[in-house]
Amino acid sequence: MTNSEIYSCVTLDNENGNNVDMAERRAHHNALERKRRETIKETFTTLKDALPSLRGEKMASRALILRTAVEHIQTMHRRNTIHQQDIEDLRRENCLLANQIQSLEKTHNVPYLGDPVPLDSTSSESDSDPDCEGDNNKTKKLTVAGKTLIVHIL
């Protein structure tokens, strides 16, 4: 088909109303594309505002926003890992202290009042502290009032 044949077909279609439908479809497509671009722009703005280092910036390229977001996520992931390790260290220390208390109570003939309930526990299904269970068994010596106690850390 030559260009003149295509032009004559479009002219004929216009008389039949088909060309108007094509223009409406094109306008609808353009509106959808404009909406998609606006949504992406708003999302980048929201992401920029969520990043502490870019919060006050008026202009930031999309590449900068994405790069900064990746850096922020990596930093937060590292911090989360460190905090999780701190939590585990505190749990181990809590178990050590609970065992020391239990040993001292036995040594001084104080009635044993039971294992402490973890602060984040909402049920009392177990008589022992679940944070003290595991395969990290260690033995510590503790000297109190001239007496040496051997404490087993579970």
Automatic annotation (TrEMBL):
- The domain of life is Eukaryota
Signal sequence region: none
Q: What keywords does the record list, in alphabetical order?
A: Activator, DNA-binding, Nucleus, Transcription, Transcription regulation
Q: Where is the BHLH domain?
A: 24-76
GO CC terms of this entry:
RNA polymerase II transcription regulator complex
Report residue spans for region: Disordered.
108-139
Q: Which PROSITE patterns match?
A: BHLH (PS50888)
Name its GO BP terms in alphabetical order. positive regulation of transcription by RNA polymerase II
Q: Which GO terms describe its molecular function?
A: DNA binding; DNA-binding transcription factor activity; protein dimerization activity
SMART domains (alphabetical): HLH
**Of which family is this protein a member?**
Belongs to the MAX family.
Q: What is this protein called?
A: BHLH domain-containing protein
What is the native source organism of this protein? Cimex lectularius (Bed bug)
Task: List the top taxonomic levels of the source.
Answer: Eukaryota, Metazoa, Ecdysozoa, Arthropoda, Hexapoda
